[in-house]
Fold:
Amino acid sequence: MLNASNLFPRGSEWRQWDFHVHTPASFQWSGKRFSDMTDAEVVQTVDQMITAINQAVPSVFVLMDYWTFDGWFALKKRLAQAGAPKLNKLVLPGIELRLVSPTSYRLNAHVVFADDVSDQDLNNFKSDLRVALIEQALSDECLRRLARQKLGDDLLTKHGMKAEVVKADDSAALLAGSKCAEIIPDTYKTAISKVPDGKAIAFMPWDTYNGLADAEWAKHYAYVVGFMQSSPIFETRRQEQWEAFVGIETENNKKWFGSFQAALGNKPHLAVSGSDAHSFADYGKFPSGKATWIKADPTFHGLLQAIMEPAKRSFIGECPQKLAEIAENKTYFIDSVDVQKNPAATNIGKWLDGSALPLNPDLIAIIGNKGSGKSALADVIALLGNSRQKNHFSFLKKDRFRGKSGEPAKHFSGTLTWCDASTVQRNLNDDPPDDKVELVRYIPQGHFEELCNDHVSGRTNAFERELRAVIFSHASEAIRLGALDFDQLIEQQESSYRDQLSEFRKDLKKLNQEIAGMEEQLQPEVKQALQELLNLKARQIDEHNKIKPAAIEKPAAELTEDQKAVASALDEISAKIKAIEDKSALNANVDLILAGKVKAIQNVRERMRLLERSHKQFQDDTAKDLETLGLKVTDLVTFSVNDQPLDQLASAIPLEQANRKSTVANEAVEKSKLQVEQVALNAKLNAPQQHYQQYLKTIEVWEAKLAELTGAADAPETQKGLQARIAQLESLPKESRSATASTVESGR
Structure:
């Protein structure tokens, strides 16, 4: 068992928890039970259990043996012995019971206990439970008496037992009692409440085996609601049910969400899924891949945190979204930061030496008293992440840690390790090179104040530039239309208006501006920075290729006729969904083309107005001279404008866009219906077929992410976009020479 005082330096992290495993103490164990073993065999079996727990994926296991804590006691006893194997996971004691129910089935119920609960409190808990019919405290002897005194021959026969064997054999009597016993519900609730210090938590199955969902609400509403409000934890494997328990209203549960939450007392509850393993080989193997993930320390107190914030701290499925995001984007997440003193430095003091801090990917704030090192940590991370804000560091500056001569900073170096295992190491007295990619965006207080103050006073437009960069990063492709940065986007949107202004400017000034812009882009650090970004993107693609799902062949196992029909229907649905997605991708490209046409119409109209204005200006400027010459304007210039084709296009495009929007909406509805049908059909397949269908979905998501990283030439953050930008830079020298020649010609 993990000691609750162990430190988890990253704070709350997503970990798998298996809330429902059995041990050989359980009467339904798949194999030899403790009661049939010698002491030596028990020791050997408990060692096997410890090995199975250590090797399984979950970080926490809850023992849920029927009617007994013997499995927990055997584990504790073995761990206290010399030579026992080390348990590397947290194990919590628990118990699985069956309660008297007004319906036609017995209600399953569980209890989770703290790992530091005393043996006496566990024994007292059992003593507070009362077994129905015999109304005695739960114990092995009570279960034997129940079987021998209260169970009729017909019931014993139904469970495969013979009355004469039960009366003569204690093991048979205990088995019969275990199969048929029921606890009086009120004693279940009372026993939990009497465990000191809140170290017992009620845990009810919902739509799993003999769960509360099978109860008839209309007939037994008070019975159902009583357990819903007194149980902080429920077991389910359905997404919409998890959402309802944790307090999230969705399209799938909105029809009954209000009444469901009212039954819960309008308080979110933690919903989990257990493996219900009855053998060591099944520990941590969740049905249908519905694993439970808890974002908390692997401790009983971590469980209490999850109960308080179930929506934020729990997930049921193969992998939480945040972990998937980290796995697919390791180059974006920092793993740790470390500061070490130069071993040769003496009489410097310890300072930051030995500061090795693993970071949580959800880190959003650094909290501490004044002088506790908040600014030092932020500055070190910014320095190692190539921040451009070195002039605004509050700790790594001359009058503080760097001193006038670099003391003591020059005797220390920092290392930043990313989740893709790449590292950056730098002396704390050195500034980040200007040609390195800025991997960490840092806005220190001094920089923020300067931005705001200078913006208000009108001294610089730095604040506006920062704001523009943020706006452009959130603009869609339909808005960007090929722009690679905000300035290019503004140029696109305002080009026609700029042309009107440029009409009054001399060509020489315009050409000089173009040359200046080219020369600025031709600076070596511009291309170096882009190359760094391209290298980073290549690393991201490489990391993504490493997590490509292993290929799975389509199962060749013989299917039933029904399964063949389902498989055939699934293939047909997959083909339809693929066709819709392909069409959607094509439609997205067409939408970009239509958006480009709308902008092109605006540009042409503005240039036509420029022509009309130029013609009118020519008439006004030459009127007097033409009168002197006895000529008319029409004798020299014939000018006509026909904007009817543009009007026709301008009228047709909105109609086409509206039709496309309607088509997209219909396709989305059709795709949603197909996906719902696909999920329902998947459930009818055998395990290999389900696994294969899941693989098809996974590889589809992986390929979409690869396409996103690779991108296109007009997507600036993608690999192809960066390559296009570098190619654009490489063509600038030729354009610059041509513009210079034009400038010379204009000067003449």
